[in-house]
């Protein structure tokens, strides 16, 4: 009987944390909720139900991950040195990639354009799941306004980053964090299909608009926070 009660308590724990408005870390929320999400989404994709798969991802983000506090990870920068997320004093757009994962045509130019337009107000970070020597060529495609970093299973201290990000939500995935590292949104990239030229144009538009939508949520949240603090 005690064993059954303990299981029930653990199942209800995520709901109680969220309902009480208490902040939990992103990595804890992933650990609590990912197993069920993976089981349900794997079943949906095996059945070819991509709409169900997308719905499950969006539900995980909206109801379990948004509002959590992103872990204060430290990433290795491709140009040398390190970047600790808490050292960034403005909202962050964090996009994960891997050198072997070919981006959609127009995807990187769209991100570079947005970094030029919004880099003053938002920190753009690209994180490769690679060793440094394996991502150097791919890193050169990104604007100098974007901080390119890397993490890999073989590197010391990267295990928590790999476990909570790479081995759960996959990549390419975009994380939108406010200046206090609160998760505002998480999105996946869309890869269009079609003729090469229209593929580029469509890829550019889809990725530009997707990241822009996330930026809008991030910046609107920032303004609402400022207004709230001003009224106190």
Automatic annotation (TrEMBL):
This is TlpA disulfide reductase family protein. Coiled coil: none annotated. Residues 64-220 form the Thioredoxin domain. Pfam families: AhpC-TSA.
């Amino acid at each position: 009987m005690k064993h059954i009660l303990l299981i029930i308590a653990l199942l209800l724990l995520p709901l109680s944390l969220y309902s009480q408005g208490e902040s939990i870390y992103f990595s804890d929320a992933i650990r609590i909720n990912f197993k069920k999400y993976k089981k349900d989404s794997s079943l949906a994709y095996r059945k070819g139900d991509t709409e169900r798969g997308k719905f499950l991802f969006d539900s995980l983000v909206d109801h379990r991950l948004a509002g959590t506090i992103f872990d204060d990870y430290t990433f290795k920068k491709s140009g040398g040195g390190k970047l600790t997320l808490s050292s960034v004093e403005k909202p962050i757009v964090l996009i994960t990639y891997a050198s072997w994962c070919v981006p959609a045509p127009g995807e990187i130019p769209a991100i570079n354009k947005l970094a030029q337009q919004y880099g003053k107000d938002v920190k753009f970070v690209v994180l490769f799941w690679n060793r440094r020597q394996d991502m150097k060529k791919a890193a050169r495609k990104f604007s100098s306004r974007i901080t390119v970093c890397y993490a890999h299973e073989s590197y010391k201290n990267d295990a928590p980053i790999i476990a909570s990000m790479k081995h759960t939500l996959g990549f390419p995935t975009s994380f939108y964090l406010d200046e206090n590292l609160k998760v505002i949104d998480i999105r996946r990239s869309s890869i269009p299909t079609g003729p090469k030229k229209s593929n580029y144009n469509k890829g550019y538009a889809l990725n530009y608009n997707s990241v822009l939508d996330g930026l809008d949520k991030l910046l609107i949240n920032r303004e609402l926070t400022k207004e709230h603090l001003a009224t106190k």
